Amino acid sequence: MSEVVVPPCRGKNEPQLPACGLLLVNPAEARQATQISSQEGWSRHFLFHSNLYLAQSPPRFWAGPAMGAPMAVICLEKLIALGAKRIIVCGWCGSLLPDLGLGELVLPTWAISEEGTSAHYPLAGRSESSPKLRKSLKDFFADKGQEPWEGPVWTTDALYRETREKVVRYGAEGILAVDMESSALMQVAAFRQVELAVVMMVSDLLWQEPWRPAFQSKEFRRRSQGLVEDLLRWIGELALA
Description:
Blueprint: E1 20-24, H1 27-39, E2 43-47, E3 50-56, E4 59-64, H2 69-81, E5 86-95, E6 105-114, H3 131-143, E7 149-156, H4 164-172, E8 177-179, H5 182-192, E9 195-205, E10 212-213, H6 218-240
Parallel strand pairs: 1-4, 1-5, 5-9, 6-7, 7-8
Antiparallel strand pairs: 2-3, 3-4, 5-8, 6-9, 9-10
Helix pairs in contact: 1-6, 2-5
């Protein structure tokens, strides 16, 4: 394997992270997490154009926003270099199936990659999310009376090139949803040998004509905010497990 020019590393005065934390994809959720962590006394640290907050008791962190595969991977690489070993990613996705409705949760198992980042992390075979972390997430949501969907997703860099033909074809193949980060994050986690799982809330219905987004509705925002609050608490429990 060729030597890289810029290896990810922990720099001077950068924090040592606990093993367990949360990576938030979207700016809205990052703003909410900032408010919560500021009120609870989490310490703030530098992370490119994102946030990095660290709590000591129980030890955990969250980072974000990190939208799109390149930025998400840059943040993930840094988090791993700082000590992260179990990462939960939280974001949104577009449903490809009529049975998968707005506000429902998806736990990706693997992803079709139509982004340009994961190819730079060559591995044999298909990268998947951590079965152990996925089970922990499923158990957590089951305790709350929720049953997330679990299966493959489609990851793309080209938000405005999600064609009707692909939506129909991938949906017919059993692909649940589309996002912009999962395939790259799974690939990097496998490459770096850390545990990573993704939970996404359905924000829009791509199978419907015309396209039906819900991410600006009050009800969707309420659900999304509730998910972030739940995950920030839960990663504390996960850190102590």
